[in-house]
Amino acid sequence: MKTNAASSLCPLCGGTGHGAFEKNGYLHHQCDRCASLYLEPVPSPEALADFYRRSSADQNSRLCWEGGNQHAHASWCRALATAAKLAGTGPLLDVGCGAGQFLAYARTLGWAELEGLEVAPDVAATARRVSGAAVQEATLESASLVDDRYAVVSLWDVLEHLPEPAAALRRLARLVRPGGVLLLGVPHRHGITLRVFGSRSLIVMPPEHLFLPSRRGLRAATDRAGLDTVRAETTDVRLREWLDVGKRLGPRAPSAGPPSRGAAQVRADYLETYRRITAAGAFGLVQSVINVLLRATGLGDQLTVVLRRPPTATPPAAADRREASRR
Ligand SMILES: [Zn+2]
What we know:
Elements: E1 17-23, E2 26-31, E3 37-39, H1 45-54, H2 57-66, H3 73-87, E4 92-95, H4 101-108, E5 114-117, H5 121-131, E6 134-136, E7 150-156, H6 165-175, E8 176-187, H7 192-197, E9 211-212, H8 215-224, E10 228-235, H9 239-243, H10 245-249, H11 261-279, H12 283-297, E11 302-308, H13 316-326
Parallel strand pairs: 4-5, 4-7, 5-6, 7-8
Antiparallel strand pairs: 1-2, 2-3, 3-9, 8-11, 10-11
Helix pairs in contact: 2-11
Bound molecules: zinc ion.
Zinc ion is lined by residues 10, 12-13, 15, 31, 33-34, 36, 217.
């Protein structure tokens, strides 16, 4: 895959890193400062676009979203309750909204002004149908959006797919109105599954996951974007990976080329099992008990942060300039 020649610093905190491991032909570095993992070099935008074209990203998106979102409801509920307290139930934008499950869930909690961004046209159509939200078929860069508009902007499992997270966070901070809230959910670099299975974990999924943030790394990136951290917590365990424990801890497979149809089938199987598990009656109770433990220990596989744009302080654009002048 063609890559960007320049840049080798941590995309989150800007620290230097060292080679940690390779998977599917992609070298992962670990940041010496914040311990986040990131691809080095970062695939070029053209290479990423080509990858998503070949791997049928819209199908991935549909699988991800239809595969089991019940587990996320508790996190979504807590995050939206905090957001409502801080910013009221004003306009809400979900970036990378998939088939609209989060938007539909927000509507059931009383959020009425709903918007979404989704690149795959048929997935965007589903999102409109299930949530009633105004969904643009666009990326964060190409979308037509108004600064200072949103009470809440959310990204669930989206930030780690973006090659320039710092620039994305600055853009997001401008979209949120002063005093408004940004909700981020990302895979957690120090979650228990990645700690135990290492590069064999399905969380290590190049070139889709371009980085896997530590709490410290994500905090550095959001601080730089001028956002205040209200809460950061880790929840959830990648159940299917633990059910497959024998396979995961077995002999290391040789590095292959880019993911093939085989990889897509593995993911489809994973999501189907996940759907069956999460649909079981006792699942919610067990998960909430586990989540109490994971929040206390910081070992959850999902890192969720609630961020706030300061109500009156320096707008993020000015913070950018200050940051630039320090360099
Ligand atoms: Zn770092």
